[in-house]
Amino acid sequence: MSELFVKICGLKTGHDVGAAVDAGADAVGFVFAPGSPRTVDAATARALAAGVPDSVLTVGVFRGQPVEEVRRFAEESGVRGVQLHGDEGPEFYEALRAGGRTLLRATAEHVKRCGEYGEDLLLLDAPDPGSGKPWNWGSAEFAAPEGRWLLAGGLTPGNVREAVATTGAWGVDVSSGVERERGVKDPALIRSFIEAARG
Ligand SMILES: O=C(O)c1ccccc1N[C@@H]1O[C@H](COP(=O)(O)O)[C@@H](O)[C@H]1O
User: Fold this and answer.
1) Domain containing residue 52
2) What is the pLDDT of residues 113-126, one digit of tens each?
3) CB 3.0–4.6 Å: which of 86, 109, 119, 176 could bond 64 by disulfide?
4) Above 90 in pLDDT, residue 145?
């Protein structure tokens, strides 16, 4: 099996982006959804993304924003991926397809396979994204979707290995679990998380 895909989300400083990249992250996320302690503007994300090698995917994170706003933030920041948390339907993904970006569909719903809405990657998350609260991925009722999917929601360096082993996730995404306080990343936790995730 190839190496687990790891995304570190909610980065706000060059120091933290560097820590994630140096520790081997496959993707780094910048939150454009309003109202989060991690929200950054497009210019800040552009400056942060400039220091990221091409091998690492830069992702803009949105929640319930109009397609024009998503497109504008993506273009102004230069991110190569777009992650949508909300009730966007397939037409939303179709509208963004022409931008050539990797499309991530984040949902708390039960989904059978990645790609149903035209997304490239599926992200199974808690109902309250970015809260650090886990959901019941360990329950007997949970059935992993087909295809490339990432597990998110309440992951930490302490539980990520078990979460991957239990669910068979293709990748993982984390924000709160690598913070020393809400909205403030800790480079040591970022390194521990990535090491633990890959076992
Ligand atoms: O991180 C946020 O503040 C955020 C805001 C709006 C939409 C998504 C957000 N983050 C995503 O939430 C999960 C991580 O959650 P956790 O903090 O590790 O439990 C991940 O998909 C982030 O991209």
Assistant:
1) 5-198
2) 999 999 999 999 99
3) 86
4) yes
Q: How far is the CA of 99 from the centre of ligand 1 (A)?
A: 23
Which residues approach ligand 1 with their CB closer than 6 A?
9-10, 29, 31, 33, 36, 38, 61, 63, 85, 106, 123, 125-126, 129-132, 152-155, 173-177
Tens of pLDDT, residues 19-73: 999 999 999 999 999 999 999 999 999 999 999 999 999 999 999 999 999 999 9
The CATH number that applies at residue 189 is 3.20.20.70
Helix (H, G, I), strand (E, B) or coil at 197: helix
Q: How far, in Å, from the CA of 196 to the mean position of ligand 1?
A: 19
Number of folded domains in the chain? 1
Taken in order 80, 44, 191, 106, the sign of the CA dihedral is negative
Whether the predicted pLDDT of 2 surpasses 80? no
C-alpha 36/C-alpha 80 separation (Å) is 21
The residue whose CA has the least distance to atom 9 of ligand 1 is 130
186 phi-psi bin (left φ>0, alpha ψ -120 to 50, beta other): beta
